[in-house]
Predict the 3D structure of the following.
Amino acid sequence: MKVSIQREFNAAVTICARDVLRFVRDWKNSLLFSFFFPVAFLAILGGTIGQNMGAGLGYDYMQFALLGTVANLLVQFTMMGVTSLIEERENGFTQEIFVSPVSRYSILFGKILGGSLTSAVSLIALFTVSFAIGIPLSLAGIGCILLVTPVLFLLGGAMGVLLSGIFGSSPKAVDRATIMVMFPQMFLSGALIPVKNSTGVLSVLVHLMPATYLVDLLRGVFYQGTPAYGQVVLYNPIFDLIISLAIAIVFLVAGTYLFVRSERNR
Amino acid sequence: MLRTALVDARQDYEPVIHVENLVKRYRHSETAAVDGLSFDVRPGEFFALLGPNGAGKTTTISILTTTLAKTSGTVNIGGYDLDRQAKDVRQSIGIIFQNPSLDLNLTAEENIRFHVSLYGIYGYRPSYSMMPRSYRERVMELAQVLGFAGEIFKPVKTFSGGMKRKLEIVRSLMHDPKILFLDEPTQGLDAVSRASLWDYLQKVHREKKTTIFLTTHYIVEAEGADRVCIVNRGRMLFSGSPEAMKSPMVGKYLLLDAENRDSLRSELTGFGPELMEDGRLKVRFSESTPQDILSQIKTPLSFMCLHEPTLEEAYIELVSNGHEEEEVS
């Protein structure tokens, strides 16, 4: 039993290590990809909103946007790390992974680990862009962000597992679904645009987005004890944490079940 | 002693692959891709599954290698039940896929290292130098045997098609599988690379006694098989040795010609072998030997060619007849 668990863990580490090594080996593209989204979403989109609509909010808009971008990008990159399993299943080394004597749970766990570690590079990119454009960020603030990142990786990985389970038989469908999940999360989770006063259908959609609770959790921890807390935070961080973990567990269980089933029942 | 001998004998004859009444019907498909296939493969056998496109070869190999669920039937691989012991089945087989399964951005050694770590032979270490000595020695030995010791630490994308295929075979043998599944392994390779790859595979088969399960469109590659199984539209058309497949279907014949063709024709007609005129004189023989025929000819020959049937001819005849029968019925 102990040997079996050790072996499965070793397999998951191997799968994770491969993702990290590929990321490092292809460092030019990896760095370009890691910096592109922080620049596009935070510096350009966030910067434009901040300059034109950020005045008189009562809090630093760019800091607000940084936290939203951190939560969204880490979730999305981890999710994409997991769904790459489906995108490359017909070609390359992934075929080898599927026929190895490794449980499907370990494969998914390894992909979540790999996706988390490679998406962590985008966190460094986000901090670099923040310093470059003058967003106030203290060491304590960085500590708060790092404290919440495991939850971001977990929910991002769980979303990737669910998408892989639902669209497991079609790499193209996974690709499209990833994009269709990514953009609504970005715009409806309150990452760049405040959603505190949303009403009607938009309010329902805001509350259906898993990233809403992650963004709010991150801001809840970051702004704890500051005057801006009441203006930017929706719920108590404990509530956000419980909801995020609950969604992650449901997505992981359902996604793994669908993935294992769809993988062989073609 | 006798008991041990009996156990050994039983193990020799106990099939390493047992397939009984295998059926696979894909979702939203009216016909079965595999329709009641049954066969056994003995330990150490070189078994070739042949058939035209859409015959069900890849579906069968996908089921046997656990990547596709069957609709019904019984499959036992290496003594393990496919449904209940899929993980044990995976541990006891090696696979060369139709599409290359190497990570082109990694080096040859890294590809091997990831394989052995996934199969639990060695714990994963982030560099070659940190791997155990036994691993390092084995990798170097294999690289030397295959002639790419100098390239073992280079990215696989710099390798030729033949080298990549050989690397895949080496990698798939690292966990000492009982059975090696080869799904069209030479697809896309040039003639020289194909020949070199088969030399290596024959060596592996001979020395390691690994059971080989092959699917291919190059019928000539199955000439050396112990047994061939021909499938079409999911059903078995033939199962037996290549010799058994060739002998009843395509006759052996001599192609003869002479300056004085009329004299040669009347001579041949005189002693009665089956004679056809096909540009030259085509003399079929089955019981007699070519020498029996040649020794009776007095007319000076200007051309002589002995034709032995190939597996490919037998295959084409078998598959074409199968089609015709289906069309008639």
Remarks:
- The interface with chain A takes residues 26-27, 65-69, 87-88, 90-91, 93, 95, 97, 99-106, 110-111, 114-115, 117-120, 123-124, 126, 155 of chain B (CB under 8 Å).
